[in-house]
Design brief:
Structural class: alpha+beta
Number of strands: 13
Number of helices: 20
Strand content: 5-15%
Helix content: 40-55%
Shape: globular
Length: 470
């Protein structure tokens, strides 16, 4: 059994951490003496070669989409900054688009972090800075006045501080059971516009189920369901629209029934016995490759379409897990299996995780994790938000991040004591967010120059889709 410190001892540890990293030091941007394009190319190594231009194409849309795909740059920079010495599994990519709504296994709609590809042991401040930087970059991209952007960033940080102080008073079990439901968000909303936005998101989530996806993504032929190709976003690995090389076409449906059955069996072993029994009610219909997100483009991502005897579907996403950018720049022990890293981190940080979350190893030394493709999942349409709604959204992100950190670390008391009740930390993070936005724009311009001069190739979804219409 672990030795349990008193609350006073834990508070003293948090205050002592200020001597290791002054709260004002959180304004520092870090080591930006690097070639952003070289780091991005390093991060693209090992991805599907034909999809790397699509990754760059999606990143090139705006400074905000560039930031979403360049987590490696911020991790590199922050490695040179001081931290409070309180490390635990953090999200690693806690920008404002990696929060959203989804259903718990009990069918309750919750708001939480929803992307854990970069999860690893690291300083909690890095997550706060990732969120703050994304708010400043999104605000500037949307043309919001600097003072208003400053208020939005400060709102997220204040909420993080206040919720962490609240969680410092929770018992271990109460904290483990804490959840940010949409009902609680409605109660906490400060404007009628905010409440309408939450209700609209709740309504949208209710329609995003396995059943609703079946007729949108698949068609039935001769009693078999087939996923419909829509390249470059979705295609069959060995089909005529495939973007994979010959050595990567092991991921087709027939291969899955054969040698990939071992990978699926490995996944099943990571599930609780009752979930394995549930999957036994489904049979595999089809497998397709799906390109997702911005930063994940080019990594292996498969969709398995399964149905039960009532012709009701289950869509499982099989996503490649690669080395975390946090682990590359912060030295800490973690699981050797990257899929296990993602799953363990997600289960620790989220209030409730997908019922089918698990991991496995596949061919070509690739490691994967499984989850449902869509189960009442909904994300924010940030660019259409008014300033007031964006500020409310920032507050909810700060709340969800504090809850995740408090649960994952068990150190809400220490973090709250470090933060204190004043403005020093919020002021420093706000200053950091604008420095981050400035650096991101500089990196984006260097990236765009590399695209224009042919150093790297960037192609849009529309350009690549046109290749298949010719």
């Amino acid at each position: 059994m672990a030795d349990i410190r008193t609350l006073a001892e834990r508070q003293a540890i948090g205050r002592e951490a200020r001597s290791r990293a002054k709260r004002s030091s959180n304004a520092e941007i870090g080591n930006t003496d690097r070639d952003p394009v070289a780091l991005l190319e390093q991060n693209s190594a090992g991805r599907v070669e034909a999809l790397v231009p699509l990754r760059y194409g999606r990143m090139s849309v705006s400074p905000f989409t560039f930031f979403r795909g360049s987590a490696i740059l911020q991790a590199h920079d922050l490695a040179a900054t001081a931290n409070a010495g309180i490390a635990f599994p953090i999200c690693g990519d806690a920008h404002l688009m990696n929060f959203g709504g989804f259903a718990t296994p009990e069918r309750q709609l919750v708001f939480d972090l929803n992307d854990f590809d970069e999860v690893a042991v690291g300083p909690w401040e890095w997550d706060v800075k990732r969120l703050a930087g994304s708010l400043a970059i999104a605000g500037e991209h949307m043309g919001i006045a600097r003072d208003t952007v400053s208020d939005i960033v400060a709102t997220a940080v204040h909420e993080y501080r206040d919720r962490m102080d609240e969680y410092a008073g929770y018992s271990a079990l109460d904290l483990w059971n804490e959840i940010v439901s949409f009902e609680r968000m409605l109660e906490a909303a400060t404007s009628e516009e905010g409440r309408r936005t939450i209700l609209k998101a709740k309504e949208k989530a209710a329609g995003r189920t396995n059943e609703s996806m079946l007729n949108k993504m698949a068609a039935q032929r001769d009693g078999q369901w087939w996923i419909q190709d829509a390249p470059p976003a979705i295609f069959h690995p060995s089909g005529p629209t495939s973007l994979l090389g010959e050595h990567d076409q092991w991921s087709n449906t027939e291969a899955w029934r054969g040698k990939l059955a071992r990978a699926f069996d490995g996944y099943l072993k990571t599930l609780p016995s009752e979930r394995r029994a549930l999957i036994d009610h489904f049979s595999l219909q089809d497998v397709a490759f799906k390109v997702v997100g911005v930063g994940s483009v080019g990594t292996f991502c498969l969709v398995l379409l399964m149905v039960d005897s009532h012709e009701q579907p289950l869509f499982l996403q099989v996503k490649e897990a690669r080395d975390s950018v946090i682990a590359l720049h912060y030295d800490a022990e973690g699981p050797a299996h990257q899929g296990q890293r993602v799953v363990s981190g997600q289960r620790l940080l989220q209030a409730a995780s997908d019922a089918f979350l698990g991991w496995t190893s596949g061919p070509a030394n690739r490691q994967f994790y499984f989850r449902q493709l869509r189960d009442m999942k909904v994300s924010a349409d940030v660019e259409r938000m008014s300033n007031g709604v964006l500020q409310g959204y920032a507050r909810f992100c700060g709340w969800a991040l504090a809850r995740a950190h408090a649960k994952a670390s068990g150190k809400a008391v220490e973090i709250a004591a470090y933060l204190g009740s004043g403005e020093r930390f919020a002021d420093a993070i706000t200053e950091y967010s604008f420095a981050c936005a400035t650096q991101n724009l500089k990196d984006y311009e260097a990236f765009k120059l590399a695209c224009r001069t042919g150093k790297i190739e960037a192609r849009s979804d529309e350009d690549m889709a046109a290749d298949f219409r010719m």
